[in-house]
Structure formats: structure tokens, C-alpha cells
């Protein structure tokens, strides 16, 4: 699709995902045993035929830049294909990106240099699979100035999204960002139609909208709050229902904003369902990532004769389980589990060592942590709260590189 430029917004702080985002951008947070969150958006681009991609970064972006360099240097510049990381260039003055629309406005020079007729705007911090090509084709067919991907959610959850009202031909008639009283769907008063933050613009429409918005001091320079409501009054804005794709991706309609510890934890646990709501194993829609060359995972009998056991878990390469027991958990690469340790309902990032006779439950362990023998985490909230962050649903989070007191 040489007539399409793709922009991935990947500069958010992700403060609600702290402490996992204390030292990395939200799109760079590990997910599902081997991936980074941004891999899902970039994989969708790859399979959808989008080959001109700008990734706008900002907050603590080093690990994100490194991951894209190592895992996504797959396009051929000689064919005008690229994935280019674009940190703030200060071309519009000495400011950082101050909103989703402002981030693109700061890079208007890249839009003007592009030969594309259409611009796809995506977020780099959602977990889903989608064929963008089908959405782009519908955008062209309807002659829309802007097409917004949407999905229906329970009314009580819609307050966290931009809520749309549409006509019978899917034209958007009203848009309200995070309303206290969301409008409901005509055929189902229990649900609301919400924006997924996935947009297809005509290039000219986007440029004009961003230039006009930049002149308004009262604007928050956000697509949902400022850009979309104004375009509805002056242009043809249409809704595209997620899951209606006719492309190769399975129509599972799975989409998650993993913006909090609990939503991140739940999305990982979804992968452990007997029939996961999102199938990572669809052969023609594989999720691409970077993974170091490591030996296969294995179990090892301990010196006491205990066998390493894995039950209903995701296990990455390089994991060694020497006499421990792992149940309903997600383990990233190079995790070491020692004799008598038990791990349940947990997520363990890479390069973590679990000492002998540890008991871990309902927790997330970030990278480069050595857990001393006999440590108990996730079974005593009062004790855990003295040392660690605990989510609303009781998930205990140990930050990267945490050193336990002797």
C-alpha cells in the first residue's frame, strides 16, 4: 500500500502501569512470555501490507528503540519500505509532544514529504489482531474524510472511551470523549459504541485539521477531545466495526487496553484459557518479535529428587525448572526455578531466579530479580504492602532489579 502512511503513537508514560513503566515506555512492556506490547500493532501492520511506518516515541524510549531495531528491521528501503522511530524533533518549538494530535503536528514535515494519500493512526499499546487493509478499503469505498474503528462494550465500561453515535449507514453523528453518561446503541441499551483509537484519514483532511487545532490555545490537542468532534460537523466521518474484517485474521474480536496492572495481568491470564480468546497460534498471522537465541526450556530433577513440573503455563526459551512447580503462569526467558519453589497465577519476566522453597502467587516479577530462598509473595497482603505495589485486585508487583533485604 504505497498510498498509505502509518503513524504509531508510542510515546505515552503509562503511569497506571507503574512500576512496570518506571524505566520503560508502555509499548515496550513485555507481554505473553516473549513479546512486547507494541509487537501486536506492528504485526498487524506487517500482515495488512502497511510498509511505511513512523513510530513516534518520547517517554523513556531506549528499550523500545532497541527492540524495534533488533526485531523489526525487516523492510526494504529500496522499495520505499520502512519502520522509522521518530523521537521529538522540536520542529514546532521547544516542546515535547502534548497530546495525540500534537505528536503528529510536530511531525507535519514528514507528512508533507510523504507521497501517501491516506494516513493510518494507531496506538502502540493495545493487545489485538486486526486487518487494517479491510478498514482502509471501506474508508475508500465510503469516501470518508475520517474512518474510526469502533467496538461495542457494556455501557458501564464506556466511560473510559470515546463514545460514538452513528446513523444507519455508519456515519458518525456525535462523539463524546469519556462521558459520564454514555449514549447507548439503538438496538441494545446495555451497550455503547466506543472508539478504539484507530483512525484512517485522508492526508489533506488530517493536515488541515492539525493546523487548525494547533492555532487554538484552548485545545488539548487530542484526537478524541478536539479533532474528531470538529470533523463530524464539517466532514464525512464514518465508523468501522472491529471484527467485520474479511481478511486472513481470525474474527475473535479480542482487543484489550492493558493500561493498568490488573488489565495487563488479566490479558496475560487470558492466554492460559483452554481456548484462549486470542489465538497466538494462527499460522498465517504469527506475532513477530525479537527474542535472543537461547536453548529450549527444560525441567531438571533436583538433588532431593523433586521433578520440575509445569501445569497450564506459557514457558519461554531458556527457562530451567529444577524441582519446582509452576501452575497457571507465564514465564519469560532465562527464568531459573529452584528446588521446592511453587509459582501459581503469576507472570515472571526474563532473567529472574526463584530460590528454593519460595512460594509465589498472584504476582508480577519484573526483570533481573533474585528471589531469596524461602521468600513468600502474594499470600500475605499486609506483609507484601510493606515492600511492594499491590493493584486494586491484589496483584503484587516486584519492580525491575529489586534487591531483597538480607
UniProtKB/TrEMBL annotation:
Could play a key role in the communication between the regulatory and the substrate sites (site feature) positions: 58, 96
Q: Which UniProt keywords apply?
A: ATP-binding, Carbohydrate metabolism, Glycogen biosynthesis, Glycogen metabolism, Nucleotide-binding, Nucleotidyltransferase, Transferase
- List GO molecular-function terms, semicolon-separated: glucose-1-phosphate adenylyltransferase activity
Task: Tell me which residues bind alpha-D-glucose 1-phosphate.
Answer: 97, 162, 177-178, 195
Pathway where it operates: Glycan biosynthesis; glycogen biosynthesis
The keyword ATP-binding belongs to this UniProt entry's keyword annotation: yes
PROSITE patterns, per the entry: ADP_GLC_PYROPHOSPH_1 (PS00808), ADP_GLC_PYROPHOSPH_2 (PS00809), ADP_GLC_PYROPHOSPH_3 (PS00810)
Q: What is its EC number?
A: 2.7.7.27
EC class of this enzyme? Answer: transferase
Q: Where is the Glucose-1-phosphate adenylyltransferase/Bifunctional protein GlmU-like C-terminal hexapeptide domain?
A: 295-398
Q: Which reaction does it catalyse?
A: alpha-D-glucose 1-phosphate + ATP + H(+) = ADP-alpha-D-glucose + diphosphate
List residues of the Nucleotidyl transferase domain.
Answer: 6-272
Function of the molecule: Involved in the biosynthesis of ADP-glucose, a building block required for the elongation reactions to produce glycogen. Catalyzes the reaction between ATP and alpha-D-glucose 1-phosphate (G1P) to produce pyrophosphate and ADP-Glc.
Family affiliation: Belongs to the bacterial/plant glucose-1-phosphate adenylyltransferase family.
State how it assembles.
Homotetramer.
Identification of the protein by name: Glucose-1-phosphate adenylyltransferase
Amino acid at each position: 500500500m504505497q498510498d498509505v502512511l502509518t503513524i504509531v503513537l508510542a510515546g505515552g508514560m503509562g503511569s497506571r502501569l507503574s512500576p512496570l513503566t518506571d524505566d520503560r515506555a508502555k509499548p515496550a512492556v513485555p507481554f505473553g512470555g516473549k513479546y512486547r506490547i507494541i509487537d501486536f500493532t506492528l504485526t498487524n501492520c506487517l500482515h495488512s501490507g502497511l510498509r511505511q511506518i513512523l513510530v513516534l516515541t518520547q517517554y523513556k524510549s531506549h528499550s523500545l528503540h532497541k527492540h524495534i531495531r533488533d526485531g523489526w528491521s525487516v523492510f526494504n528501503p529500496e522499495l520505499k519500505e520502512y519502520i522509522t522511530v521518530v523521537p521529538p524533533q522540536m520542529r514546532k518549538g521547544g516542546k515535547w509532544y502534548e497530546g495525540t494530535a500534537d505528536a503528529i503536528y510536530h511531525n507535519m514535515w514528514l507528512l508533507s514529504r510523504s507521497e501517501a494519500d491516506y494516513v493510518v493512526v494507531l496506538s502502540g499499546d493495545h493487545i489485538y489482531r486486526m486487518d487494517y487493509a479491510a478498514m482502509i478499503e471501506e474508508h475508500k469505498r465510503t469516501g470518508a474524510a475520517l474512518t474510526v474503528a469502533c467496538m461495542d462494550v457494556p455501557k458501564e465500561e464506556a466511560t473510559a472511551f470515546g463514545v460514538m453515535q452513528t446513523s444507519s449507514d455508519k456515519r458518525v453523528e456525535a462523539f463524546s470523549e469519556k462521558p459520564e453518561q454514555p449514549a447507548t446503541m439503538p438496538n441494545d441499551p446495555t451497550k455503547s459504541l466506543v472508539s478504539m483509537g484507530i483512525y484512517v484519514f485522508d492526508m489533506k483532511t488530517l493536515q488541515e485539521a492539525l493546523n487548525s487545532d494547533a492555532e487554538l490555545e484552548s485545545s488539548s490537542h487530542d484526537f478524541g477531545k478536539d479533532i474528531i468532534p470538529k470533523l463530524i460537523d464539517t466532514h464525512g466521518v464514518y465508523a468501522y466495526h472491529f471484527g467485520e474484517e474479511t481478511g486472513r485474521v481470525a474474527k475473535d474480536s479480542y482487543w484489550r487496553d492493558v493500561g493498568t496492572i490488573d488489565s495487563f495481568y488479566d490479558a496475560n491470564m487470558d492466554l492460559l484459557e483452554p481456548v484462549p480468546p486470542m489465538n497466538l497460534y494462527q499460522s498465517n498471522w504469527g506475532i513477530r518479535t525479537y527474542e535472543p537465541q537461547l536453548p529450549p526450556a527444560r525441567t531438571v530433577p533436583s538433588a532431593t529428587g523433586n521433578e520440575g513440573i509445569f501445569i497450564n503455563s506459557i514457558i519461554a526459551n531458556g527457562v530451567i525448572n529444577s524441582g519446582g512447580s509452576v501452575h497457571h503462569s507465564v514465564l519469560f526467558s532465562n527464568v531459573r526455578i529452584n528446588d521446592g519453589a511453587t509459582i501459581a497465577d503469576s507472570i515472571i519476566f526474563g532473567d529472574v531466579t526463584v530460590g528454593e522453597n519460595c512460594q509465589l502467587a498472584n504476582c508480577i516479577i519484573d526483570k533481573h530479580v533474585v528471589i531469596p530462598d524461602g521468600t513468600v509473595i502474594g499470600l500475605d497482603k499486609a506483609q507484601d504492602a510493606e515492600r511492594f505495589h499491590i493493584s486494586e485486585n491484589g496483584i503484587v508487583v516486584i519492580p525491575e532489579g529489586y534487591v531483597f533485604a538480607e
